[in-house]
Amino acid sequence: MSSRVAGLHMHERWPRPLLIGNNGHLNLLEAAAVGSPPFSERELQAILARHPQLLPVAHFDPLFGTPVCIGREISTGAGPLDLLYVSPSGYLTLVETKLWKSSEARREVVAQIIDYTRRIVQWDYSRLEEAFVTYARQYGLPQQGLIPHVTDQSGEDIDEMAFTDAVNRNLRLGRLLLLIVGDGIREGVEEMTDYLQHAPNLQFTLGLVELGCYGVTTGPGSPATLIVPRVVMRTAEVTRAIVQIEMSEEAARRITVTTTTPAPEGEGGRTTLSKTAFYELLQQSVGIDRATLTRTLVDKLVSDNGLEEDFTTKKLALRADLANGDISIPLIYISTAGAVTVYRWLAKKLAELAVPSEAVNRFLEGLRQIDALFPARVNDEGQIQGFKAADRNASLSQVLPRFADFSRLLVELLQEIDRRASESG
Fold first, then answer.
1. Nearest residue to 340 via CA among 322, 358, 364, 361
2. How many CB atoms lie within 10 A of CB 172?
3. Could you give the CA distance from residue 238 to residue 218 in angstroms, rounded to a whole number?
4. Residue extents of the structural domains in the chain
5. What is the pTM (predicted TM-score) of this model?
6. 3-state DSSP of the chain
7. Which of 149, 177, 212, 272 is deepest in the core (most CB within 10 A)?
8. pLDDT per position in the chain (425 positions), as tens?
9. What is the C-alpha separation between 291 and 374, in angstroms, rounded?
């Protein structure tokens, strides 16, 4: 079982921001006193419902990105959850707001949001739809259903079946993002994590988000308020398991159990998808059968030919590690939408290794026999047409039935690269 319950990353409080006006006037902003923000807790909920962009969800996992508010003060059976969001990919974010007036409140809110989570993971998609309908009716939103609402608010097209399946799967696994949002988070944060041990079967991520509030004078009239969100704490994933094994005393002496915790991300680095997350998103685009087949075939291609997999926020790159070990070149990209294309500067990079553009053109001509939407040839600038709109790229639906030919073309190109590298060496 996996639960994000350890490995805390603490960030120092930010210094006072400096506002430079158009006339060159410098204004060093003063933060509002912790516990005395220019809004009430209910007003903070309304702000976060209207402006979900204030929630730094991508800091935790891009799958929760573009959150759309689908509920306020939702009845859970353990108390009302302040805010509930869902991403176009079907990943849920739970938010509890708290103005940090006392240490007791700071500790209790963690226990509260976990209690709410334990109730919500018993839901399914239909129950989530009911919660949204109640929210829409209460706050005067158009009665258009959950998926049309998420589509309108996010601006993304949503596959109804994939979205529904993702929501049900994430509820079943407890794969949720829990955020506690307040106006000031200071001492005692470490003590809060004791409550995380109470939900070992869930795969949630917990984050504490502080909203710095600064008074800004912009001209005549009432002063304005600048709200700056910052992550104070996030939990990192640690894998835990309880295994009961019955065996002889002699066999037991030969058993060793080792647990590992993934190393934390480097601060300030680009957030990337894990391999599992990439294929889950791909499944939503092309279906479980094609996603599973893609993973099987790509794994074999990688293992047989020494390719490297590089996952980014939206795509998988298949890279070739060259013989000298100093250069790694992406060859093919596969996006989470099921599009397939070629690294646009492939010919230019290979030319530096004395691989002629004719070899790359042969590679492209072979690919076009698999799918006519692959780029035609290297242009005069040594560039290959890169990613376009997903529906105008080559697609997995065309590549998978001829994956043997696809693999052969890649292998032939790799052999050409190796031959040229050996000659130059």
1. 364
2. 12
3. 47
4. 2-239, 275-424
5. 0.55
6. CEEEEECCCCCCCCCCCEEECCCCCEEECCECCCCCCCCCHHHHHHHHHHCHHHCCHHHCCHHHCCCEEEEEEEECCCCEEEEEEECCCCCEEEEEEECCCCHHHHHHHHHHHHHHHHHHCCCCHHHHHHHHHHHHHHCCCCCCCHHHHHHHHHCCCCCHHHHHHHHHHHHHHCCCEEEEEECCCCCCHHHHHHHHHHCCCCCCEEEEEEEEEEEECCCCCCCEEEEEEEEEEECEEEECCCCCCCCCHHHHCCCCCCCCCCCCCCCCCCCCCCHHHHHHHHHHHHCHHHHHHHHHHHHHHHHHHCEEEEECCCEEEEEEECCCCCCEEEEEEEECCCEEEECCCHHHHHHCCCCCHHHHHHHHHHHHHHCCCCCCCCCCCCCCCCCCCHHHCEEHHHHHHHHHHHHHHHHHHHHHHHHHHHHHC
7. 177
8. 334 333 333 334 556 777 787 777 777 777 666 556 667 788 888 989 999 998 988 877 777 878 999 999 999 888 899 999 999 989 999 998 887 664 545 557 778 888 898 899 999 999 999 999 999 998 888 877 899 999 989 888 888 888 898 899 889 888 899 988 877 665 444 455 555 545 555 667 888 887 777 777 656 656 677 777 777 666 644 333 333 444 444 444 444 444 344 444 444 444 567 888 888 889 888 998 899 899 989 988 988 888 888 888 788 989 886 655 456 788 999 999 899 988 888 888 888 778 888 888 899 999 999 999 998 888 776 677 655 555 678 999 999 999 999 999 999 988 888 777 666 65
9. 20
Identify the residue whose tokens are 């601060």.
267
**Closest by CA position to 4, among listed 222, 173, 183:** 173
**Residue 406 structure tokens:** 């696809």
Alpha-carbon gap, residue 237 to 271, rounded angstroms:
15
